[in-house]
Design brief:
5 strands, single chain, about 120 residues, about 30% helix, YaeB-like fold, alpha+beta, 5-stranded mixed beta sheet, 3 helices
């Protein structure tokens, strides 16, 4: 399923709000860490890049998480210093409280599509 423009706006609004509430974390993955270093970013810079995501950066989603049925992934792509970054995000709930997570932040393996550009 591909989200509507409004659904992407709503997702990004909630995701960014959760970052600002400090209910956010990066999943520690070697590939993501390597890309962040390659791009010369710190975790704080990468966090700022997430806060700057827009509807035009949207690529696909929501896609159901195969491990946790009630959760969904949203995929974004953003050009950073000449490299297209593949950014996989999710919002999840624990005991009624929402949290944001960046699951992947690495160089895209293929040319990404952006339906709202």
């Amino acid at each position: 399923m591909t989200a509507s423009r409004q659904q992407v706006i709503d997702f990004l609004g909630e995701f960014k709000h959760l970052i600002e509430l400090n209910r956010f974390h990066f999943v520690q993955r070697l590939e993501s860490n390597k890309t962040i270093v390659t791009l010369g970013l710190t975790k704080n810079n990468a966090r700022r890049e997430l806060l700057s995501l827009s509807v035009s950066d949207f690529s696909s989603g929501p896609t159901q998480d195969r491990e946790i049925a009630a959760q969904e992934f949203w995929i974004f792509g953003k050009e950073l210093r000449g490299i297209e970054a593949y950014i996989k995000l999710k919002i999840y709930e624990v005991n009624g409280i929402h949290y944001a997570k960046c699951v992947s932040f690495h160089e895209a393996e293929f040319k990404m599509k952006h339906p709202f550009q």
